Backbone:
């Protein structure tokens, strides 16, 4: 499997090196690289990147420029020249960081079925370097090596390696799909069919489904025998899946099984029953993932039954919430529009499936559709760019719904050097304009993921650990109950906003168990907070009051393109655990203070050498800051407070108040 290491470079790989690049340099080599990368003509791309090597000899992008020349020559079928630049690309990386580049070169050569001797050498180097890794991580390297061996005609060795990759990644459909191909080539026809069916069940509905149907036709000539073989394979795989999934949510299991039956053209009555039941099980507390999955799978069943208008309604019901990266959803929606005779909407679905990252399937089918409709490639690219602009600058208006006094706490864990955080950050900005602060309290905690972020502080990292840590950015948590991870470029903000809004709105229904009221005042370096907690019903134990000092906006030019960071948490009273509560009385009052000068001193000391703190990511060298953020704007502050169960993490109620400007101009920026 190929690793998108250029994209990952922009996001995380070798990010400690990239972090030292100033915004001035970025305006030169980064912009040039991105411009040249978009060139379609192979010869022009080669010349552009050769000039890049001359113009920016010290750029951190040099290895990737060599790689771009390699792939361009490969596409031009100039294999000898491609291999020269492949070697240059590999040699440009430090010895200890060559695994991904070796793997990518081997994969690219294997996919083209050229330079296989070189591909074998590179894939073996990867195998030698990753031999001690666990199979889950090592799986994609084994997958590449198996492909190389398959192309060289060493089928048995390819099967052995791919089985090893599968064993460490049982939920990865692409490995199963590849294994099916190798098994079929090795004459293990029944196992190949079962493995392809497994890949379909796990979500690989392109190559695996095509191969499954083709191999069924090859195995039997009689129609009845073909159907019997199909049913035998499908039933065997489905039985195994259901047995292994007995301890899991059966609605989800049955919904996945229903889609599998629909894809393989088997037992539509059972598929319809399972898909309907799963959809009917949804309620206001259901996750977005389940809502989209169940609607999509029921739509697939309806479409397989020829009920395309009904299928279209199900797809449309979750279209605003569907994952932009889920090419299968957008492909299926586009095909349903085509079946119902609405080619204009079909084109929109294909475009929506291309704005994030167009899968091979989407690209192939969109090109076919465009040719049929006589739409040029330039027009398609303009439509994609236009849609990206629309999605990054949309205006949802303002919230005008009704609530029962429950104020939702929306927490975003983000990083200024995190590319996929751009969509989440932008969506949170829009949330802050859509909802008033007496309906939704918005907080952003910065952490050093994937690279150093000067808005990180020990309290924000402690809050990250409060929720267990070990999750990526961006991650959003609503009322301590619902965690949503994932983002993308800024133009996916509309999708993130829709998802966040869906989650927030369902928490307005319940009446709060406790109310919070209070004030905040500022004098000199002191921000004083006075809060009154009023118990409305019996409360559980293990509650804490959390109070945060928030800077409402900080200007910092992060590498992900976000320059204005909203509602940044600067300090937490009593850290992430907060102040223990008993709530024995109807009303309890609290008075706490933030010493802004002291907080600034602590932030300054932290930024002087953050590697001493647990928040720093091991193995990342500290190269200083392009911009420090240890000064706090005293005229731009707010206080957030919330009551939370430290065991279940459920938030009972939240509160927000702006801090009046300081009566004394102390330390303002």
Residues:
């Amino acid at each position: 499997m190929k690793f998108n290491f250029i994209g990952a470079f922009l996001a995380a790989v070798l990010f400690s090196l990239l972090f030292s690049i100033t915004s001035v340099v970025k305006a030169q080599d980064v912009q040039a690289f991105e411009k040249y990368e978009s060139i379609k003509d192979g010869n022009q791309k080669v010349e552009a990147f050769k000039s890049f090597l001359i113009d920016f000899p010290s750029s951190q992008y040099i290895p990737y420029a060599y790689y771009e020349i390699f792939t361009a020559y490969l596409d031009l079928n100039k294999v000898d020249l491609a291999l020269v630049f492949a070697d240059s690309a590999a040699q440009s990386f430090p010895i200890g960081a060559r695994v991904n580049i070796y793997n990518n070169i081997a994969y690219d050569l294997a996919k083209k079925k050229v330079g296989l001797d070189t591909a074998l050498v590179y894939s073996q180097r990867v195998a030698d370097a990753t031999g001690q890794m666990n199979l889950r991580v090592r799986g994609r390297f084994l997958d590449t090596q198996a492909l190389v061996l398959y192309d060289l005609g060493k089928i048995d060795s390819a099967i052995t390696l791919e089985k090893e990759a599968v064993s460490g990644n049982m939920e990865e459909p692409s490995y199963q799909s590849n294994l099916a191909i190798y098994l079929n080539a090795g004459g293990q026809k029944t196992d190949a069919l079962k493995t392809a069916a497994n890949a379909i069940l796990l979500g690989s509905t392109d190559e695996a489904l095509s191969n499954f149907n083709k191999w069924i036709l090859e195995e039997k000539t009689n129609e009845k025998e073909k159907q019997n073989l199909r049913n035998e394979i499908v039933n065997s795989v489905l039985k195994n899946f259901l047995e292994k999934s007995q301890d899991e949510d059966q609605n989800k299991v049955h919904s996945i099984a229903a889609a599998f039956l629909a894809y393989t053209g088997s037992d539509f009555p059972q598929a319809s029953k399972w898909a309907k039941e799963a959809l009917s099980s949804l309620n206001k507390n259901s996750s977005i993932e389940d809502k989209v999955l169940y609607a999509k799978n029921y739509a697939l069943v309806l479409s397989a039954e020829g009920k395309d208008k009904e299928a279209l309604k199900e797809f449309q019901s979750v279209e605003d919430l569907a994952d932009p990266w889920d090419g299968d959803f957008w492909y299926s929606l586009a095909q349903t529009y085509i079946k119902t005779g609405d080619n204009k909407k079909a084109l929109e679905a294909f475009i929506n499936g291309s704005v994030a990252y167009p899968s091979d399937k989407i690209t192939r089918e969109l090109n076919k559709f465009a040719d049929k409709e006589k739409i040029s490639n330039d027009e398609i690219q303009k439509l994609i760019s236009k849609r990206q602009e629309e999605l990054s600058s949309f205006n949802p208006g303002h919230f005008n719904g009704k609530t029962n006094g429950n104020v939702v706490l929306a927490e975003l864990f983000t990083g200024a050097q995190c590319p996929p955080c751009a969509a989440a950050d932008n969506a949170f900005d829009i949330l802050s304009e859509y909802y008033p602060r007496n309906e939704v309290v918005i907080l952003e905690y910065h952490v050093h993921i994937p690279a150093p972020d000067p808005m990180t502080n020990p309290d924000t990292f402690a809050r990250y650990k409060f929720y267990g840590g070990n999750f990526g950015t961006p991650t959003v948590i609503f009322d301590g109950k619902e965690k949503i991870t994932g983002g993308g470029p800024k133009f996916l903000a509309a999708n993130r906003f829709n998802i966040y809004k869906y989650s927030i709105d369902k928490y307005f229904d319940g009446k709060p168990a406790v109310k919070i009221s209070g004030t905040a005042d500022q004098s000199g370096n002191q921000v004083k907070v006075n809060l009154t907690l009023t118990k409305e019903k019996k409360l559980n134990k293990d509650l804490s009051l959390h109070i945060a000092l928030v800077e409402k906006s900080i200007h910092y030019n992060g590498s992900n393109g976000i320059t204005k960071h909203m509602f940044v948490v600067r300090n937490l009273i009593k850290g992430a655990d907060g102040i223990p509560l008993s709530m024995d009385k109807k009303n309890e009052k609290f008075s706490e203070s933030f010493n802004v000068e002291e907080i600034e001193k602590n932030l300054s000391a932290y930024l002087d050498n953050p590697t001493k703190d647990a928040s720093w990511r091991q193995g990342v060298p500290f190269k200083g800051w392009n911009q420090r953020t240890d000064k706090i704007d005293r005229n731009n502050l707010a206080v957030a407070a919330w009551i939370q169960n430290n065991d279940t993490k459920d938030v009972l109620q939240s509160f927000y108040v702006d801090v009046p400007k300081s009566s004394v101009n102390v330390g303002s920026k």
